[in-house]
Amino acid sequence: MAQQQGFLKPGERSKKAFGVAFEGNNDPYVHNKKQRTQPPTSHQRRPRDADRLPVAKYRRQLLYLVETHATVVVLGETGSGKTTQIPQFLDEAGWTEGGRMVACTQPRRAAAVTVASRVAEEAGCELGEAVGYAVRFESVMQQGMTRIKFLTDGVLLREMMEDPLLARYSVVMVDEAHERSLATDMLLGLLKKVQRRRPDLRLIVASATLQAEELRAFFDPGRDSSVVKTVQPGPGAPVQRTPAIISIEGRTHPVEVHFLQQPCSNYVVASVETAVDIHKADLPGDILVFLTGQQEVEDAVRMLDREAERLSASSGYGSKLLPLPLYAGLTGTAQAVAFSPAPRGYRKCVVATNIAETSLTLEGVVYVVDSCFVKQRAYNPLLGLEALCVAPVSKASATQRAGRAGRVRPGKAFRLCTAQDFAKLPDTTVPEMQRAELQGMVLQLKALGIDNIMRFEWLAPPPAEAMVRALEALAALGVLDQDARLTQDVGLPLASLSLDPSLGKALLTAFRQSVPCSQEMLTIVAMLTAAPHGPWVAPPGVRKALDEAKSRFAVVEGDLVSLLNVWRAWQEHGCSAQWCAKQLLNQHSLRKAEEVRKQLARACARLGLPEPESCDGDMDHLRKGIVAGLFMNAAVFESTDHNPLAPESDPGTHVYRLIRPVGGADATGVRARSGGRDGMGRAAPGATTGALDAGRLRLRIHSGSVLARCRPEWVVFQTVQQSDSGWYEMQGVTAVQPDMLLEVAPHFFQKSR
DNA sequence: GAGCACTGC
Description:
Elements: H1 2-8, H2 11-18, E1 22-23, H3 41-44, H4 59-68, E2 71-76, H5 82-92, E3 101-106, H6 109-123, E4 131-135, E5 138-140, E6 148-152, H7 153-162, E7 169-174, H8 182-197, E8 202-207, H9 212-219, E9 244-248, E10 255-260, H10 267-281, E11 286-290, H11 294-314, E12 320-326, H12 332-339, E13 346-352, E14 365-370, E15 373-380, E16 385-392, H13 395-403, E17 411-418, H14 419-423, H15 439-447, H16 464-477, H17 491-495, H18 501-512, H19 518-530, H20 543-553, H21 559-572, H22 577-582, H23 587-606, H24 619-630, E18 634-641, E19 653-658, E20 670-672, E21 698-701, E22 714-722, E23 728-736, H25 738-744, E24 749-751
Parallel strand pairs: 2-8, 2-9, 3-6, 3-7, 4-6, 7-8, 10-17, 11-13, 11-14, 12-13, 14-17, 16-22, 21-23
Antiparallel strand pairs: 1-10, 4-5, 15-16, 18-19, 18-22, 19-21, 20-24, 22-23
Helix pairs in contact: 5-6, 7-8, 10-11, 15-16, 18-19, 18-24, 19-21, 19-23
The structure holds one DNA strand.
């Protein structure tokens, strides 16, 4: 205990060295105040243990509430068993009689698949019989036989296009609603609508955090007199439209949370020191450190490696520290290392990005070190550009991270901020709906028959500017007409392709233009969809080799056309794994691209598009197809900035300027028309002019682009991200001719003068 | 001169 005390209050010892000191926590935040002694998690999966899950006690109450309420909000902590048990309760209680199914949605594919197989095992059936799942590319179920179906929320949205009232389901359980993904929020809004037309449908919204009241209020028809408050579901009690809330405790262990006594100036250094302190205290259990990005993770691992070496040299400690990185850019095998148990005599210290907060679970973690920062996407609807920003986490997010310490036994979490600063953090993360680009979402809602998107009932309404921006962009693409309805020629076909609208437009155009290049565009679009940041692996220390590998496939037309070479070379080498490794290509990305490509080709055939054709090296027509989708992201070279302090050999920074509707003449020869217009030359709904001076925005080509060292006069790009240095950097760049812009998007551009 | 995390019949 003395040792522990010393560890909890290391201030005297480590304050000087690292400026990191923690407050002992007199009133520790405990995740589950009811401490439980239960068998380890691996036993939970065994069928007979299901009865011992916390949710088992609530079975009768839960079934009663589902019977009598249209919507039940289930507040359930990690380990409560809600995901695996509730669908089985419903099945046993007769909710799957008459051929109807119970659906349980998950935000992630992996979760849908693994939960389904666990439930199938518990139910004693083969996966795909009574219990099945559906995720993109993979549906393991049998019509008429499967009663419980786990699916991603994205798949359920797709299903609604064929079956808007979800007639095949008696109950829909939306799990992990607290994550507030774009698809989850869309689904909740749509389900509320469906409920009005299907009073017999039951909704269960499962959430891990304190948003129960918000959810109840959302699904409560309240005083709305147009809604029938009760209906008879056959025999039994009348159905309450006002949602019920039920709370189920979890089966995790308490986690003591500690804060810094003083703010730290460098959380990477502080996290390393904290991990080392934990290790020195020599209590058993793995350490999990949360940082924001790949670079930070690699820096921390390097520092920890040095510390580990020093410590093992000075000896005296029972085990050696084994620092391991974990982030999405690692190859599968490198990720697997972080998951495998530490060898005898070692203690793992996994340094991870946000990937470990929700997506992946590490066994054996007892200590969590939380930088309390996260890197997240932020969208600026006024400029139509996004940035990756390092931002403080929300309290809910920090709670989730801390909870990772309590899965095997009581744990500790060390937050690298003071308790005072922590109190100032937002309670919950801003829903994706309010910080994302919305074109795809709007297209999908339109396809589901939601005409008045502005009046749609949202759990969290998207910013009006983002909505207007999305409507304008869809109008410019020809997806929406002047009444903001889906167009026959573009909108309807695009809605059935699971693609970003701009990529979908490029693909449609590739099929339809005078010299088709649909084979090539299928490949490019599939590659971009499967691996938005490129098919390359990104472990550290291979930067130079990676540049060389990229340049082997690079062409002057730019990044998108270069992807074509990667694909062709991969095919020519028999899709070999060794070849991928040698070229620093991520095999997984290429295989996924292959699946996307097949699926897209099938979808195009269903739409009645012609057989895919190749343009046989006609790069101009290929680029025209690309421009048809990306013309709104056009930029022109302006000037080269020279840093007066840089050596004379320094090429300087090539600065580009966006060509967007801003009005005014332009010396470059082409300018955007003021006011977006639809494909028929009519003013697009909500088109704005001059309000934002995107034309003044200074862009440069991202250094990872194959065109980074070239200086093409005109380009279109796929995305822009703001760098740490404040530059807006274009990614997925294609060099174009100004004539192409005028020819492909005459409604958007005009010759100046 | 450089990559948070997901998803799509």
